[in-house]
Each structure stands twice: as structure tokens, then as C-alpha cells.
Amino acid sequence: MNDQQRTVLLVVPDYKPSFYLPCPLKADTAQKTFSQAHPEDIRQLHRHLNARLPSESQLESVEVQQQRPIMYYRPEQPEGIPFLKCTLKPGAGHPSNLQQFKSGPGVECEKAAGAVEKVVADGSLAGFSWRQRGTNPHEADVKPLTRFLCDASLSGGSWLWACAYPQHSSSSSSSSSSSRPPQQQQLTAAAVKRFSRWFLLAAAAAGAAVLQQLDPVPPALRTAAAAAAAGDILPLRLLVLDVLAAPSDGSSRTCNAEKDPAVAVTCHVTLAGSSSSSSEDNAHQGGSSSGGDEMKQQQQQQHKVAFVLAGAAAQGGLPRQLLVEGFTLLLFASEADMLLAWRDWVQRADPDGIAVFQVRDNLGVLAARFAALNLDGGACHISRAARQHSRGLSTKSVVMYSAAWVKSQSRMASTSNQETFRALGLPGRLVLDVLRQVLTGQGLATFSLVDCCHSLLNRTLEVIPSHTLAALQQQLAATPAATAPAATATAAAAAAAAADILVDDSQLPGVRAGLRLARYSLGRCGAVAELLGRLATVPEVFEMARATGLTLEQVLYNAQMIRTWSLLLRTAHRRGYIVAGRFDAAALVESPYLMHPIEHKTAGLYNTPVATLDFASLYPSLYRAYNLCYTTLVHPDDVARIGADNCTITPTGAAFLQPSVRPGILPAILSALMSARATTRGALKGVQKQLQQARQAKQQQPEAASSAAGPAAARQHVGDSVLQLTARAAVLDGRQKALKLTANALYGFTGAQASPLQCAPLADSCLAMGAATCKTAAAAITAALQQGLLGPKGEAGKAVALGQQAAQLVTAQLPPPIELKYERVLCPFMLLHVNRYAGCSYETAAAAEAGEGQLLVKGVKAGALEHILMQRDVAGAVKHVEGQIARLLSGRVELWELVMTGGLWRVTGQQLEKAAAAAAADAGGNGGAAAAGGDEDVKGPHASLAVRLSQRDPDKKWLLGERLPYVLLTGARTQDEAAEDPLTAAQLGVSPNYELYFTNKLQIPLKEIFVTCLNPDQMRQLLHGDHTKLRASTTTAGDLGASTTQQQQQQQQQQEVGGGQDVSAAGGAPGRGARGRRGRGGGRGSSSSRGAATAAAAGAPALSPDRKKGGAGFGMRAFFQQSARCLGCKAVIYTKAPAAASSRPTSEQQQRHVDPGLCERCLQEDDTRKAVQIAVTKEASDAAAKVCAAQSACRSCHSGGQLGAVVCENGECPVVYARLSGERQVATAEHKLLRLERLDW
């Protein structure tokens, strides 16, 4: 894209990749020696190789270059040895499609190098009196795109200056005619096409990417460099996309894109990036009003469009297009018409990028629907490539590690193996998946869109289950033409066509269901757009590409290895090195240097001030301080020859050259990165200061009358300045983060087995030097300060001074740039484990812990630490914890406080499906009893729950690494059997196992905290006192029986939403969807199978009351019936139960039979009856108030208008649980009132 925001296709036809081979020696028969080959010998070798190579591997040139291999320093060859640089010829003919055009000329360098190696190794060189010094090609495994970017010093997201193609060069006329594609062959739909030679390209990338030096520097390049340094990103038109699918049979199950239709596709077009330079130029040319005009133009370019499937209603009395509430609503009679219209609209809008949350649930659904309906040849073509060169939209699973590899690891980060998807077939458009950025940069519970909104945006998001979406669509499709009079409909349609008049749903009642679908989907688009701004997605992606020399797509979907690999290639080539020679993959030495607090008996509670010190970027500083690098690593055979004075011997025994002998490449890269980061942070502070001043000026500026044009224009200018400074600050912040992440990733690049250049001696040496540095710092502080860093009690100011003095003392004794920094003073200070400590800070607030456990445990721990550390009240902490334990065991906690999450790291979706099939077979053989599956790899409560959910919903597809929320219910034998979906449990009213939560989930962290400040007797009283003897009345799945009441509520809800239409007639009676999420998107209307079973799932109830043998549903308990108790004294009331054919009465019999509310003794006491009546009435009133408050809170993100029913089933929202529990409490209170009324019968 150029500065006029026009897309440009830049064709570089003359670039030729190359690789290196060791240069052979020429035999001198007279002197019986070998010497270097002469130029004529090289030309002869070139002809010899081309005569034996296939046509696609022909060499353009072979030349001798003096190069140094990057691995090891050999004193006998300090300047390297001669290498043959083999340059490939351009591929024969022109590329047939855009993918081949992008991948570079000819075949990949690795294949051509293999062919050359085979020819060299066949012994044919011996006939020419040559002796080969090696046949292994170097740098042959470098991808053509990476090599081109490195050779041309280019990077994605950078400002690029391209010299015009030399039209009148006679030397290049033949090559230009053969390299250019035919004029009639249109590869893309770009507005501008240019040709340039690769060595005439220059990038003005910011950060660590080096600006190509030209003499003289062209003015255009100088302008681009200034724009890049200022952090400018041209405005990008981003299309935020959301797709809603609904089950074709109207049931509550996960939607299958191959058979279920898409009912709505919504698009939210917005601008991302910054254009401060162009804005400033406009301001100088046209005054302050031009900036306001630009902002108005940008606001006009932001629009929202909703494509909704209306069925036959679109052919009846409903208009096809409406302008409603700031967005355009388009109604279509068929899904095919809707998808084709959406495709044409995208081509006309021509966005630069598409932003989604989880590619599979949006672009993947569209690709599947185009294929299922065989639209446009069965492929969705929305790229900028020409139609004949587009292969259509598709998706591909992206995962870093396999499940088997994860299972074999003893330790692994929980968020490092999340399965996502990548969109293919969209050349010319950038695809941003917000989920990938959240997975790598945030620590959340489930990583769903709902979780992101709650944790990052501090707001909730409506979740409509799949069967409700189907009901809304069917209601819209069944809207009769008589719903609105013909004249009214015609007038409304005419008003909508005017594009200036908003049409309300009161004017067209028939479109209310369509409006709700559109509002719901657009709300999800708005959440994704807010996340893009909150996470600064575009600036961070662009700055990472600029800093590392990668493309934007590589930054989004490649791991961190390629970032260091790109910088290493660039720096090595500039310094005369070739990247060659790799060690065999080896495991790193487990660190024996860790000073564990428990082993060294330093864990505990410190009531005196403690100063915490930390090294600034320790590992990068070690590389720079001790010149650790591939190029400075001394071979073990050469250590004695070089001498100990010229080397640094690490604790592992490896030797590295001193910087005076040979400076390393890695220290040079790190120096450039850290220097650029320091410069960027300085510029960021300046921009932030200007932004603060601009905001203060905006707040202090008095409001002017509407007629005063001068003050209004000034306010507009200040507002534009705030927006520009905010965008520039986001870019600079993204740049400094990118530089820091790249520097910190260097240690992993040298030590990881998956690294293209692993060097275990280098990584182990860095680890050992880090441990030695920490020990040196501790010894220096101990020697200088006899009492360490612990100052006298209550003297926090002295501890601050001691911490600063200790940091300066250690820094002075270590080689630069290693620096020990003072962080903060904590008093009191609690040290529990490695990197696990807490305290009352006198400097900065401690970072919030991002955990995965239930909120109850987090709250109890936070309250205990608050009393111990902040208030210094251990007794108060004990009292607080006792109260929380009593609240838990008495059942006064909400279900959402007990939700836990588990990740499917070690089990794939195929394994879960196989286990579900085995469980279904076992259940059939056992007479319908549910089973957990026979796969031994499916272990853990969350995995067992995933198997059961797959049984209920066979269309559910689990992702590797997907996080599954669950609660542990009572009445089960094991935790695997007790796990259940939280929303399903809340809807059915099943009680959690409070004792299990206290014993297995709460006691362990409490012991870890209070062992530092309580003696054994006090600890025993805390965990086994009288407050732990409370027990709550629980309800199990066996107590509920069949889920007829739930299905009745389901049908009632559908009648409210669907206008009385019997949706179940379309394909079976649906159960109530539990979470309404599809994969990670959350609330996509496709239900994550956590609800009632469908007819295809054997017709079982939502939560099977019959679990494995030994559970609460078996044994003598199945023959007992619960007796009513007096509401006053809780005594058992013996009444004659109604006769029934079975041991368990039906729901109708239970409704007809009402037990009395009071026993005969309490009935005789008039005061008791009045007190009970008042208490039950208050209970009903409080429950009704709770429901009203929850309903009111649900309206904040409600898409159904003021009168629409609340159908949200957001399983991650506390308000939904409050609404469900409140409804259940209302029903219980009403039943109690009915029992009291029975006393008067």
C-alpha cells in the first residue's frame, strides 16, 4: 500500500537464490600438492555441473568467495576458507499462479542443492584432478522468502522505497522481456503494478532492521525513514467478521458447517493504524480543519452491514434492505443468495485485512458452506488475486506440538500448545485472529470470547444458544405478509432506501427476529474490534515484523525461532559468515544451580522489610558481557593453542573468545536490539508526555457555543492531536515490546532442540553463568552487609536505601552491561516457592496472579494474604478463612465461584471421539448406564467430561489444548465422574460437592500459606475446627429424575422467542443448550454440547442420573423417598404419599400432592406460624429481587430490545448463574408458601 492508500503489486523478476559449497582443491601433478582453483577451473566446474543437473536445478553462476562458517573459531583459518557460491537460474517460463509467483523463481534452493550434492559426491570430479573438501551444502535449507528478505534487507510492515524499473537498459532488455509476465496475465486486482530489481529495493524499517545505505540517499527513502521512525502505519481498512450458524433441525447441539446453514453474516469495517505524517502535512496545508475533515471521512468509512437469512419472508412483505440503528440490514430468501451477496460486497469493499476471533468458526464456516452448496465452483473467492489465480478460501489447523510430544514432557507451559486455525487462499489480505494474540500474551481461564471480554474489556457478552438462534431464524422465515400492512411496509421500504431515515422495528414488526440476530452478531463484532484496540494488535504485529525482518504472516503464525533466525542470517552475511554446521539435537543439562527456598530453608514469613532485586535482562546481558556466540566458541582441540588469557572458561568447561580477539554475532544483535529499545522507550516517554498535555488541554478547554466556529475548530484540532499521539504511542509501545521479546528469545533459540542452529554448549554456558552471577551477587551483598538485606523492623525507608546500595555494589563488581536493579521493598514478606512470593509493597503494586483455579480459592487466598501482609493481622486472617470455610460447607456459595478449567493438552479430538464411541458401546451393553470411555489416555475430570459431552453432542469437535470449564458435583464416586458442565448443573439445580472442594481444593493452598505463621495446633484448629462440621443439604442427579421440567422450560422459552411457533416440530424436541459456545468463540449460537442430549445421542437426559456402579444413583437409596420437614422446627412430617405405579412419583403427581408446611406441634403455636410465614415471604421477596436484579443486569448486553425475552446462556457470566439460582429460589419459596396455604385447606 502506498501513501495514497492504494494497493501496489511489486514484481521483482531478477532475484535468484543461492547456496554455498566448500571450494574443491586443484591437484598440481608436478609438485604433488593441492592448490586453490583458478577462475578457468571454476568455469569448467560450472559447465560440468550444469551438464549433469536437471533443467529445474541449473546454476546461473558459480563464484569463489572467502567465507567463515559461523560455528567455532579455528585459529588456523581465522578468515575462513574459499566457498563456491552457487546461484540458481530463474525458473523456466512464467509462474502459472500467484502462489508460485510469490514463492520465487525456480524450485526451492534445498532441492537444487541436493541435486548438486549428488553430482559432486558421485566421484566425477576426480577426473578433473580436483579433490572435494566437503559435499554438504550450506544455507540450502533457508526458505526462498526468508533469503530474499535478508538479502534485500526488507521486512513486512516497513516503509519501502522501490526504484523504477530500468526501461532503456540494453543489457537488461532481454532479461526484462523474459522475466516480465505477459500484460494480459493479471495476477492480482491491485490498483498499481510496478517492476523493480531486487538490489534497488530499500526498506526504512524501524527497530533492529538495518536501513540499507545508499549514497546519496534518495529523498523518498529519507521521507519513508522519517515516517518509520515516527511510528507511522498507513490506515488499514479492517473487516471485522462474525458468522452465525444454526442447527437445521432446531435442536441444541453444536452446528456442523457441512450440513447446518449460516443464518447471519455481519461485517464491521473499521480503520486501524496511524497516519500522523500525512495528517501533519494536511494541517500545514489546509489549517486545523483538514484534520477534522480527515477524521470525519474516516468515521464515514466505518460502517456495519448484516446479511441475514430470512427465507420466504424476504419474498413476501418484508423489504430486502433496511437502515436500522446505524447498520444496514440485508434480508435474503436463500442461504446461497446471502453468501454470494456477501462475497460480492467484500470484493467491492476491498478491505486490507479481515479480523476474526477463531478462524475456524468464521472463515472456516464460510468456506464449508460455499463447498456444501457448490457456490462459485465450491470455493469462496474473496482474495485480491485474480479469479483464475485464486484457489479459494480454506483453513488449516495450526499447533506447535503434538499431543504425544506434550504427554512425554515432564514440564510444559499451559498456554504453549493451543490449537488454532490459519486461513489460506487470501493473498493480498491480512487475516488477524485475535485468539492467537490472546493465547500468547494473556493468562486467562478459558480463552473464549466471553472470557476475553470479561477479563480484558471488563464487560459481559450475550450468549444465545443454538436452538434459540434457530428459533429466531424460523420465526423470521415464517413471518406472514400480513404482519405489516402493505402500505406501511412499502413506506418503510422507501424510507430505508433513502439511506437517511432510520427504520424502527415497531414500523416493521416482522423483522424483529432478524434485527435480534443482527444486533447479537454485531455485538460480537464490536467486542472483537474493541479487543483489537485494547491489545494493540495491528501496531504490535507491524512492529514485530519491522524489528525482526519477517513478513506480517510469519509474525502471526510462526514461532519465535524464526525471529532470531532472520536476524542471525542478516548479521552473519554482513560480517562475512555463512550459517553452516549444526550440532546434533541434544537435551540441555538440567539446572543444578537453582537455590530452592524449601531446600535451603529460606521459605517463610518475614515481618521485617525485605528488598527485592532483579537483574535487567540477565541472559541477553550474559551473552554481551562474556561474548557468548557461535563464532566465538572455541573448539576443544584449540583451547590450549589459543591460550586461557584470550578465552573465557564457563562453569560447564566451554571456552569463548574475548571480544578483543573476535566480537560475536549474537552480542552484536543483542546490542542493536537493546540500544534500539532504549531509544524507543525514550521516544515513548516523550510521546506519552505530549499525550498527557494534550488531554489536559482538551479537558481545560472551555465549551464554546455552536455558533463560534473558531473555538470549535480548535477543539477539533486538539481532538485530532490526541488521536494521533495515542496511535503513535501504541506503535512505539509495540516496538519496544517486540525488541524485548526478540532479545529474550535468543537463549531459547540456542538451546531448543527444534532450533535450526541449536548449540547445547552455548545454552548450557549461559545458564551456568547466570547461576554463577546470582551466587556472586549474593556473596558480595553478604560480605558488604553483615545482616543481608533485612533492615530493622518497621524501618522500610532504610531497607529501600540498603536495596539501592546493594544493587549499585553488585553492578560495580560485574562486567557491563550486567546490571542488578532495585525493584521494591516488601514488608511483611512471604516466600513460598521459586518465583512465588507476596508482600506489602512500598513502591509498586504486585502484578495480579493469573490463575486457573476456581474463584472461591482465589478469593480466600487473597483475603488471607490481605490480612497477613497488608494489615499484619494473622488472627484476622484465620477468622476470615474460617468464615469462608463455613460459607463453603454450608452451601452459601454460588456455583460460578466453584468453576475450574482444564486443558486438553495430552489428548486429541480423535481420541475423545473414540472414547465417546467406546463409552456409548459400554453404556448400551450395561443397559444404558453412562460410561467414561475405555481409552487409557483420557484421564482427568475435564477429559472425562469432554467424553460425556461428545456423547451428548456427536457434532462437537474438540481442539487440542482447548480449555474446558467444569464443576465437581455431589453423588459421584470419583472426580472424573463428578465433573460436569457448570451451566448444565446450574440449570438442573444439582449441588456441587462442597466437602470435596474443601478437602482437595482449598486445604492445600491454605496449608501452604499458614504454615509460615501458625503452629501445628493452630493449623489443626483452622482445618478441622467446629466451623468445618457444617453440612449443606445437597441435590444429586438421581434426586432430579428425568428432565421433563427442563424440557418444558425449554419449549416455553422457544415460544416466547419464536412467537408461539413449535420449533421442535422441525426436528425433535431440543434440550436447553448449556453454554452456547462454538469452540473458543463463545456464544456463537452453536452450543458447545454441554446441554441436554439430542435424539441422536440415545435420548438421554441432560445429566444422566445413573452414573457408574457405586454412585449415588445405585443401591438402597434408589428405593427411598425424601420426606417433607417442618418449616419451623425441621421435624419430619409423615404424610401418606399418593399411590403410584412406580417407586418414584411422576411430576404431575408431585404437583398435585403438597405436604403441609408445619407439623402439628408448630401449628398449635400461633407465633411460630406467623414467624415462619414472615420468613418465607421475605425469602420469596429476596429471591424475586435477585431475579429482577439479574434480569436488569442482563439487559446491559441484551440484543432483544426492551421487550424481548432474555435468552442468554453465557456460562462464564456470574449474572446468568444468579438469574438461574434466583429462579430456582423463587420456585422453592413459592412451594413453601403453597405448603403454608395447605394448612388452611
Give a structural overview.
With 1241 residues, the protein is of the alpha+beta class. The chain has 5 domains: 8-229, no CATH class; 233-402 and 413-535, 2-Layer Sandwich (Nucleotidyltransferase, domain 5); 591-839, Palm domain of DNA polymerase; 857-1116, Orthogonal Bundle (Topoisomerase I, Chain A, domain 4); 1124-1238, no CATH class. It has 40 helices and 29 strands. The strands form 9 sheets. It has a 7-stranded mixed β-sheet with strand order 14-15-13-12-11-16-19, sandwiched between helices. The protein has a 4-stranded mixed β-sheet with strand order 2-6-5-20, sandwiched between helices. Strand 14 (321-324) and strand 15 (327-332) form a beta hairpin. The longest helix has 36 residues, at 665-700. The protein is globular. About 14% of the residues have low confidence.
Fill in the keyword field for this structure.
1241 residues; alpha+beta; Nucleotidyltransferase, domain 5; Palm domain of DNA polymerase; 7-stranded mixed sheet; 4-stranded mixed sheet; 42% helix; globular
Stretches where pLDDT is under 50 for at least 5 consecutive residues are 92-98, 100-107, 167-184, 206-213, 276-301, 482-490, 496-501, 704-709, 788-794, 844-852, 1041-1049, 1058-1080, ...
Per CATH, the superfamily of the largest domain is Ribonuclease H-like superfamily/Ribonuclease H
Topology-level CATH name of the largest domain: Nucleotidyltransferase, domain 5
What is the domain total for the residues?
A: 5
Helices and strands: which structural class? alpha+beta
**Arrangement of strands in the largest sheet:** 14-15-13-12-11-16-19
Q: What characterizes the major β-sheet?
A: 7 strands, mixed
> How many DSSP helices?
40
- Looking at the structure, what is the overall shape? globular
The rounded distance between the terminal residues' Cα atoms is 83 Å
Radius of gyration over alpha carbons? 35 Å
Q: How many strand elements?
A: 29
CATH class of the largest domain: Alpha Beta
Strand content: 5-15%
What is the level-2 CATH architecture name of the largest domain? 2-Layer Sandwich
Helix residue percentage:
40-55%
- Mean pLDDT metric: 76
